[in-house]
Write a structure and sequence with these properties.
homodimer, 405 residues, alpha/beta, Aspartate Aminotransferase, domain 1, Aspartate Aminotransferase, domain 2, seven-stranded mixed sheet, 38% helix
């Protein structure tokens, strides 16, 4: 399969973008869905922000370096990746904090309804942030398996909160269909795009979505703990109200008034002072993904993961795929169930193939299309096959779990 | 006064620390209370985090570079600056978001009481975050002028929320006395230390304080929009409950469970994924301030501002000081009321003396003791005197206000 891999790489229109990222030697990085790689432009940009904007120009950079509009500017750049208008998206805080704001905002818009519907096994922070509002007495969390969501959408449901691409299985919800079903039941919809944005086109406006959040440090390559983003459909801007009413979301923050008046539109989602270092790194990642284009990235993502499966099949490896078989129904990672998934993932890491493990039994391999080659697929499949054939994953050092996986 | 200034600088035990900061040429930076200067060690540290920890070691750095414990490690380093035990402090999110968590936590601990008492003119985000909980129906905001706070502490007050050093006047509350008064009324106390931490010793544990928050980008020199911190007294750790229940505050985040169980103590204040770039810069600033020592910084801070006033007096300048006359009763900045404060501040900036303006009529000059010289005081006083004497502040370019001031 290596010859075939080299042919595919030679024909890959995105092949040259690999050189725009730092990729460690002797490593096949299949964890860009957890922490994206470092764009080569990022170190110089960060050094400039630190040395000149902060070090030399100091407080003046809020104006002269336009720090003050970074949340809006970067949000506006993320917008076309997710089918939104620029003013519908703002970069700020974390996915978790933005979930809280938007769940609370949705509840405020839905008098008489308190249920927030999601699915068991959704990414934990999504479920926990509903619980936070539940403990405040403002929400009731309801969980329904994904094939029972439609019937769980009754007249009590204020908001349907789903993760577009599942963090573990990679399965993608039909955004248009579920948004329509929720609206038919009088519910609003909040989409968590953390495992979608930057790896595939998303069409929030086209699907009539109400709210969305997403992560900056996965396929957007914004760096560890990068700021997140939030989306609110234009039609909700006037009614938008959220409880984290910090000074940067005020209509006139520099008048230092005692009473809060919300800024227009998504600006009112701002809370504290924007994190300039994190936003600066995020912007480089977003610019690069926008330059490559999410349509092309999606095509390559599907081709990579399908080729990886071919390589496994070619070696006679038949692992239990828990991701959808159809690449159109999944995101940019593949998950396999294996009773020794943790030890397998550690044995692969020892060989320089970085994937990850998700409790209780999932080996998750991500195929970030911006910087991976088809040759990497063939090589990763070879390592996985050898790890399984030699049984080296049974060695003691691979089976003891570390704190963070 | 320049001779006297040089004598004072020669005798200053902190003089050598100036060289540990980047200070722009031809600038006297009197705004370290808004954005602290860049420590010289920061660029290399950030470059290392970006190039090696992120770029080379990627996802593994959560373990190998100890990213996962940065909030606790940096919190532990801030702790001795504010009279706290290491496990009582955690670095995370923004001041605004941390205010929300701790106001909500206090309300949960005070069944039957819903009033959050503060003062009019407190820093706006403090007041607005109370309003956020008020709009959720969980709090009632009550404002009392600072000389009427004691009498406003009735049986309805769940929490007294005050900023230790006032952002505008610089006046410092008596933390011990007001904490005692609040407790006598059955109220808890939350101190905002944003304009105190790093410029003076604070003794939260000694005063019996309940909660505190503080800013990383002022006297801690953590960089623009640096992460903030939160403090919770040990005695409240078991009862601590806050609504921003994100995955990083879970007892077992990497088991990815559907239901939230809080992590021990202040760890449960974590919400989303920690911002590693921002935390890395913050740590350098905290390490440097801890090395210098807040006791010595406080002494120099008082000496600097008193010397500045002497220099003004020596030039026959009599401005309307709105800060307390006694340096023991104020923080590390001086504020002067002047009907043309904005134009004055702009005229000073044009001369390289960077202070700031606060609505409606305040010229605010900060004296960050870690990197300012007595000579800077004499020079700043000379510029201010000349600006006033020449009337150059009346020129049109100085009177038109920009968006951020």
């Amino acid at each position: 399969m290596f010859d075939r891999a080299r042919e595919l790489d030679a024909a890959d229109p995105l092949a040259s973008y690999r050189d725009r990222f730092v990729l460690p030697d002797d490593t096949i990085y299949l964890d860009g869905n957890s922490l994206g790689c470092l764009p080569k432009d990022t170190p110089a940009r960060i050094a400039e922000v630190v040395a000149h904007e902060w070090g030399r120009d100091l407080i003046g950079s809020w104006n002269t370096a336009d720090w003050i509009v970074m949340p809006q500017r970067i949000g506006g750049k993320i917008a076309p990746l997710i089918g939104a208008a620029p003013h519908e998206v703002i970069a700020c805080d974390t996915v978790s904090v933005n979930l809280f704001k938007l769940i609370a905002a949705a509840l405020t818009m839905q008098p008489g309804r308190t249920v927030v519907l999601s699915e068991p096994g959704n990414f934990p922070t999504d479920l926990y942030m509903i619980e936070g509002l539940e403990r405040q007495g403002l929400a009731q969390r309801r969980l329904a398996e994904r094939d029972r969501i439609a019937e769980a959408l009754d007249g009590d449901v204020a908001l349907l909160l789903l993760t577009h691409t599942h963090y573990k299985t990679g399965e993608v919800f039909d955004m248009a269909e579920l948004t329509k079903a929720a609206h038919a039941a009088g519910a609003l919809v909040l989409w968590d795009l953390s495992h979608s944005v930057g790896a595939m086109p998303v069409d929030l406006d086209g699907c009539g979505a109400d709210f969305a959040v997403g992560c900056g440090y996965k396929y957007l390559n914004g760096g560890p703990g990068a700021p997140a983003f939030a989306y609110v459909a234009q039609r909700h801007h006037d009614a938008l109200a959220q409880p984290l009413t910090g000074w940067m979301g005020h209509a006139k923050p520099f008048e230092f008034l005692d009473d809060y008046t919300p800024a227009p539109g998504t600006d009112r989602l701002l809370c504290g002072t924007p994190p300039i270092l994190g936003l600066s790194a995020l912007e480089v990642g977003v610019d690069l993904i926008a330059e490559i284009g999410v349509g092309r990235l999606h095509e390559k993502s599907q081709a990579l993961s399908e080729f990886f499966r071919e390589c496994l099949a070619d070696r006679g490896i038949d692992l239990d795929l828990v991701s959808p078989d159809d690449p159109k129904r999944r995101g940019s990672h593949l998950s396999f169930a294996h009773e020794n998934a943790y030890a397998l993932s550690q044995a692969l890491i020892a060989r320089g193939v970085i994937g990850d493990f998700r409790d209780p039994d999932i080996l998750r391999l991500g195929f970030a299309p911006a910087y991976l080659r088809f040759e990497d697929m063939a090589e990763a499949a070879r390592h996985l096959a050898e790890v399984l054939e030699t049984g080296e994953w049974k060695r003691a050092e691979f089976s003891e779990r570390s704190a963070v996986t």
